Amino acid sequence: MDNIWIKDLIIEQLTDYNCFKEGWSEKFHPLKLIFPEQRTVHAKIHSIMTSFGTQTWEPLIKNIATRVGGFTVKNESDFNNNAPILIPKEIQTIMDQRRQQKGENPQLKHSEWYEEVVGLAKRYPATDFGKLNSDIFNGIDVWLEKDGSEYIIESKTVQPNSSIGKSMNTKMFQWYTLRALMPDPPKNLNCWLCFPFNPENKPFYDVNQTKISPLIPRIESKCEDEIWRFISADKIGWSDILEQIESAGEELKDMPNFF
Protein backbone atom coordinates (compact mmCIF):
# COMPACT_ATOMS: atom_id res chain seq x y z
CA MET A 1 0.00 0.00 0.00
CA ASP A 2 1.05 3.62 -0.50
CA ASN A 3 2.65 4.85 2.70
CA ILE A 4 4.06 8.12 1.39
CA TRP A 5 1.81 9.98 3.83
CA ILE A 6 3.99 8.56 6.64
CA LYS A 7 7.04 10.27 5.11
CA ASP A 8 5.08 13.52 4.81
CA LEU A 9 3.97 13.30 8.43
CA ILE A 10 7.52 12.70 9.63
CA ILE A 11 8.81 15.68 7.63
CA GLU A 12 5.98 17.85 8.92
CA GLN A 13 6.75 16.93 12.52
CA LEU A 14 10.52 17.27 12.19
CA THR A 15 10.42 20.69 10.57
CA ASP A 16 8.07 21.90 13.31
CA TYR A 17 10.71 21.64 16.04
CA ASN A 18 11.66 24.97 17.59
CA CYS A 19 15.33 24.43 16.78
CA PHE A 20 14.52 24.90 13.08
CA LYS A 21 12.44 28.04 13.56
CA GLU A 22 13.49 31.64 13.40
CA GLY A 23 14.45 32.97 16.79
CA TRP A 24 15.90 29.71 18.15
CA SER A 25 19.12 30.36 20.03
CA GLU A 26 21.71 27.78 20.93
CA LYS A 27 22.80 27.65 24.56
CA PHE A 28 26.52 28.17 25.01
CA HIS A 29 28.85 25.24 25.60
CA PRO A 30 32.67 25.47 25.61
CA LEU A 31 32.84 22.77 22.93
CA LYS A 32 31.29 25.34 20.60
CA LEU A 33 34.72 27.01 20.57
CA ILE A 34 36.39 23.79 19.39
CA PHE A 35 33.69 22.19 17.21
CA PRO A 36 31.40 25.08 16.21
CA GLU A 37 29.38 23.38 13.46
CA GLN A 38 29.27 19.98 15.13
CA ARG A 39 28.13 21.51 18.42
CA THR A 40 25.20 23.23 16.69
CA VAL A 41 24.16 20.00 14.99
CA HIS A 42 24.39 18.18 18.33
CA ALA A 43 22.23 20.83 20.03
CA LYS A 44 19.53 20.42 17.38
CA ILE A 45 19.65 16.61 17.44
CA HIS A 46 19.42 16.64 21.23
CA SER A 47 16.39 18.92 21.02
CA ILE A 48 14.69 16.53 18.59
CA MET A 49 15.50 13.39 20.58
CA THR A 50 14.19 14.91 23.81
CA SER A 51 10.66 15.29 22.47
CA PHE A 52 10.64 12.80 19.59
CA GLY A 53 8.14 10.59 21.38
CA THR A 54 5.45 13.20 21.84
CA GLN A 55 6.08 15.07 18.60
CA THR A 56 6.66 12.17 16.20
CA TRP A 57 5.89 8.69 17.56
CA GLU A 58 2.59 9.58 19.22
CA PRO A 59 1.16 11.37 16.13
CA LEU A 60 2.34 8.45 13.99
CA ILE A 61 0.61 5.93 16.27
CA LYS A 62 -2.63 7.91 16.13
CA ASN A 63 -2.51 8.38 12.36
CA ILE A 64 -1.72 4.76 11.52
CA ALA A 65 -4.41 3.57 13.95
CA THR A 66 -7.11 5.77 12.40
CA ARG A 67 -6.09 5.87 8.73
CA VAL A 68 -5.18 2.21 8.38
CA GLY A 69 -6.23 0.19 11.41
CA GLY A 70 -9.86 1.22 11.82
CA PHE A 71 -9.39 2.73 15.28
CA THR A 72 -10.96 5.87 16.68
CA VAL A 73 -8.75 8.31 18.56
CA LYS A 74 -10.44 9.37 21.75
CA ASN A 75 -9.63 12.82 23.11
CA GLU A 76 -7.16 12.32 25.93
CA SER A 77 -8.31 15.64 27.41
CA ASP A 78 -11.66 14.00 28.12
CA PHE A 79 -9.76 11.57 30.34
CA ASN A 80 -7.29 14.02 31.87
CA ASN A 81 -9.87 16.73 32.60
CA ASN A 82 -12.89 14.64 33.59
CA ALA A 83 -11.43 11.96 35.84
CA PRO A 84 -12.25 11.31 39.50
CA ILE A 85 -10.61 13.91 41.73
CA LEU A 86 -9.85 11.16 44.22
CA ILE A 87 -10.10 7.38 44.18
CA PRO A 88 -12.55 6.20 46.87
CA LYS A 89 -10.51 5.04 49.86
CA GLU A 90 -12.03 1.55 49.78
CA ILE A 91 -10.78 1.09 46.21
CA GLN A 92 -7.47 2.87 46.88
CA THR A 93 -6.64 0.39 49.64
CA ILE A 94 -7.34 -2.64 47.44
CA MET A 95 -5.52 -1.07 44.47
CA ASP A 96 -2.38 -0.53 46.56
CA GLN A 97 -2.53 -4.17 47.68
CA ARG A 98 -2.92 -5.45 44.11
CA ARG A 99 -0.11 -3.22 42.87
CA GLN A 100 2.22 -4.60 45.52
CA GLN A 101 1.17 -8.15 44.66
CA LYS A 102 1.90 -7.48 41.00
CA GLY A 103 5.37 -6.26 41.95
CA GLU A 104 6.00 -9.49 43.83
CA ASN A 105 4.41 -11.72 41.18
CA PRO A 106 4.71 -10.18 37.68
CA GLN A 107 2.55 -12.93 36.15
CA LEU A 108 -0.53 -11.31 37.70
CA LYS A 109 -2.17 -9.43 34.84
CA HIS A 110 -3.43 -5.86 34.88
CA SER A 111 -6.55 -7.10 33.09
CA GLU A 112 -7.46 -9.04 36.25
CA TRP A 113 -7.36 -5.84 38.25
CA TYR A 114 -9.48 -4.00 35.71
CA GLU A 115 -12.17 -6.67 35.86
CA GLU A 116 -12.13 -6.47 39.66
CA VAL A 117 -12.14 -2.68 39.89
CA VAL A 118 -15.06 -2.30 37.46
CA GLY A 119 -17.09 -4.29 39.99
CA LEU A 120 -15.71 -2.27 42.90
CA ALA A 121 -16.62 0.98 41.16
CA LYS A 122 -20.28 0.00 41.25
CA ARG A 123 -20.11 -0.42 45.04
CA TYR A 124 -17.89 2.59 45.73
CA PRO A 125 -18.55 5.15 42.97
CA ALA A 126 -16.54 8.32 42.59
CA THR A 127 -18.46 11.50 43.37
CA ASP A 128 -16.30 14.41 42.17
CA PHE A 129 -14.82 14.67 38.69
CA GLY A 130 -12.45 17.22 37.17
CA LYS A 131 -8.87 17.81 36.09
CA LEU A 132 -6.42 15.15 37.19
CA ASN A 133 -4.38 16.14 40.21
CA SER A 134 -0.87 15.98 38.76
CA ASP A 135 0.59 15.60 42.26
CA ILE A 136 -1.20 12.24 42.55
CA PHE A 137 -2.04 10.94 39.07
CA ASN A 138 -0.47 10.76 35.63
CA GLY A 139 -2.37 11.84 32.53
CA ILE A 140 -2.54 9.87 29.30
CA ASP A 141 -1.23 10.74 25.83
CA VAL A 142 -2.73 8.19 23.40
CA TRP A 143 -6.25 6.81 23.84
CA LEU A 144 -7.69 4.58 21.11
CA GLU A 145 -10.93 2.67 20.67
CA LYS A 146 -11.98 -0.15 18.34
CA ASP A 147 -14.88 -2.59 18.47
CA GLY A 148 -15.79 -1.49 21.98
CA SER A 149 -12.30 -2.02 23.42
CA GLU A 150 -10.06 0.83 24.53
CA TYR A 151 -6.28 1.19 24.49
CA ILE A 152 -4.13 3.60 26.47
CA ILE A 153 -0.61 3.70 25.03
CA GLU A 154 2.47 5.28 26.55
CA SER A 155 5.41 5.61 24.14
CA LYS A 156 8.84 5.61 25.79
CA THR A 157 12.50 5.80 24.80
CA VAL A 158 13.93 2.54 23.46
CA GLN A 159 16.70 2.84 26.04
CA PRO A 160 14.57 2.55 29.18
CA ASN A 161 15.92 3.29 32.64
CA SER A 162 16.07 0.65 35.34
CA SER A 163 12.86 1.80 37.05
CA ILE A 164 10.58 2.10 34.01
CA GLY A 165 8.62 -1.06 34.80
CA LYS A 166 7.88 -0.08 38.38
CA SER A 167 6.81 3.46 37.49
CA MET A 168 4.63 2.25 34.61
CA ASN A 169 3.04 -0.37 36.83
CA THR A 170 1.92 2.41 39.18
CA LYS A 171 0.61 4.50 36.28
CA MET A 172 -1.30 1.60 34.78
CA PHE A 173 -3.00 0.66 38.03
CA GLN A 174 -4.12 4.28 38.29
CA TRP A 175 -5.38 4.40 34.70
CA TYR A 176 -7.34 1.16 35.00
CA THR A 177 -8.88 2.40 38.25
CA LEU A 178 -9.71 5.88 36.99
CA ARG A 179 -11.29 4.55 33.79
CA ALA A 180 -13.39 2.07 35.78
CA LEU A 181 -14.70 4.95 37.90
CA MET A 182 -15.51 7.15 34.89
CA PRO A 183 -18.83 6.91 33.04
CA ASP A 184 -19.33 4.00 30.63
CA PRO A 185 -16.14 1.99 31.24
CA PRO A 186 -15.43 -0.41 28.35
CA LYS A 187 -15.60 -4.14 28.82
CA ASN A 188 -11.97 -4.41 27.70
CA LEU A 189 -9.24 -1.89 28.48
CA ASN A 190 -5.58 -2.36 27.58
CA CYS A 191 -2.82 -0.12 28.90
CA TRP A 192 0.48 -0.65 27.10
CA LEU A 193 4.03 0.57 27.43
CA CYS A 194 5.23 1.04 23.86
CA PHE A 195 8.77 0.97 22.46
CA PRO A 196 8.58 2.07 18.78
CA PHE A 197 11.60 0.05 17.64
CA ASN A 198 14.30 -2.29 18.86
CA PRO A 199 17.77 -0.67 18.82
CA GLU A 200 19.49 -3.87 19.93
CA ASN A 201 21.09 -6.55 17.77
CA LYS A 202 19.27 -9.16 19.84
CA PRO A 203 15.66 -9.60 21.00
CA PHE A 204 14.52 -6.50 22.88
CA TYR A 205 13.30 -8.32 25.95
CA ASP A 206 16.55 -10.28 26.29
CA VAL A 207 18.15 -6.95 27.14
CA ASN A 208 15.30 -5.11 28.87
CA GLN A 209 13.02 -7.62 30.58
CA THR A 210 14.43 -6.84 34.04
CA LYS A 211 13.94 -3.12 33.47
CA ILE A 212 10.30 -3.42 32.40
CA SER A 213 9.36 -5.88 35.15
CA PRO A 214 6.74 -6.34 36.59
CA LEU A 215 5.07 -5.66 33.22
CA ILE A 216 4.53 -8.78 31.13
CA PRO A 217 6.45 -8.60 27.81
CA ARG A 218 4.27 -8.63 24.69
CA ILE A 219 1.11 -8.35 26.82
CA GLU A 220 1.59 -5.21 28.91
CA SER A 221 4.50 -3.86 26.90
CA LYS A 222 4.86 -3.77 23.13
CA CYS A 223 7.97 -3.34 21.00
CA GLU A 224 8.32 -2.56 17.30
CA ASP A 225 5.94 -4.69 15.19
CA GLU A 226 4.03 -5.78 18.29
CA ILE A 227 2.55 -2.27 18.25
CA TRP A 228 2.75 -1.25 14.58
CA ARG A 229 1.20 -4.44 13.19
CA PHE A 230 -1.58 -4.32 15.76
CA ILE A 231 -2.68 -0.72 15.27
CA SER A 232 -2.49 -1.06 11.46
CA ALA A 233 -4.52 -4.29 11.32
CA ASP A 234 -1.32 -5.99 10.09
CA LYS A 235 -0.97 -3.63 7.11
CA ILE A 236 2.08 -1.65 8.22
CA GLY A 237 5.22 -2.92 9.90
CA TRP A 238 8.41 -1.35 11.18
CA SER A 239 10.18 -2.05 7.87
CA ASP A 240 7.54 0.04 6.08
CA ILE A 241 8.05 2.92 8.52
CA LEU A 242 11.84 2.68 8.16
CA GLU A 243 11.46 2.99 4.39
CA GLN A 244 9.50 6.22 4.82
CA ILE A 245 11.98 7.57 7.37
CA GLU A 246 14.77 6.99 4.85
CA SER A 247 12.74 8.77 2.16
CA ALA A 248 12.15 11.66 4.55
CA GLY A 249 15.89 11.91 5.10
CA GLU A 250 16.55 12.12 1.37
CA GLU A 251 13.93 14.84 0.95
CA LEU A 252 15.17 16.86 3.91
CA LYS A 253 18.70 16.90 2.50
CA ASP A 254 17.46 19.20 -0.25
CA MET A 255 15.59 21.49 2.15
CA PRO A 256 17.53 24.76 2.56
CA ASN A 257 18.70 25.70 6.05
CA PHE A 258 17.29 22.55 7.61
CA PHE A 259 20.68 21.88 9.21
Instruction: Catalogue the unreliable spans.
Output: none
Total of domains: 2
User: Number of helical segments?
Assistant: 9
Helix content: 40-55%
Largest sheet properties: 5 strands, mixed
Class from helix and strand fractions: alpha/beta
State the order of secondary-structure elements, H for helix, E for strand: HHEHEHHEEEHEHEHH
Mass-distribution shape: globular
Kindly, what is the distance between the CA atoms of the first and last residues, rounded to a whole number of angstroms? 31 Å
Q: Determine Rg (CA atoms, Å).
A: 21 Å
The tally of strands reads 7
Short précis:
This protein is α/β, with parallel strands linked by helices and 259 residues long. It has helices at 4-14, 36-67, 76-80, 89-104, 110-123, 164-181, 204-212, 225-231, 238-253, and strands at 72-73, 83-84, 129-130, 142-146, 149-155, 188-195, 221-223. It is globular, with a radius of gyration of 21 Å.
